[in-house]
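Justification of computing resources. Each target in the renewal requires a structure prediction run like the one illustrated here; the chain below, 164 residues long, is used simply to show the kind of job we budget for.
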Amino acid sequence: MSSHSYPSQPIPAEIHSVETLVHSALLDLLGAWKLIRGERTIPTAPREILRHVKPLIKCLHLSEVVDGGADFRFRLIGESVFPGLTEHQVGRLVSEHPDDGIRTRFTMLMRETHRTGRPIRGVSLRKTADERHDYRIESLWLPFGKGPAVEQILSMSILEPVTR
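Resulting structure tokens:
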């Protein structure tokens, strides 16, 4: 039995340039990332960004890179990241997430962020057996680490109900 009330289908995400971001909260988060990055390739510590985006913390999740990007471990998860999920995910691997769709989308988007070392925009569909819980998702994935090596990825997703 799943600990998620509305598991989603494993539909891959689309990967786009951050220049195509639409949602203002994602643009604000990207602006804060660029501010703390300064002249570096990527910022070193995600805690720096949290001071700039306090109202958004409930929508953020932070993961560390495991085994060179083979997997990712959740380190911080805002209260509104996984609506309907009753099982805590902090400390768990993304590959262990009980929702097939989240495992598919998150792994794909995190691997691309890890591979490129650049922020990316994700666009995806969360499709469930109960259409009332289907969402179109726009997300932002931000790399952090020392030098060019991506060690952590901070992300935020905006869920908009799919209307039929």
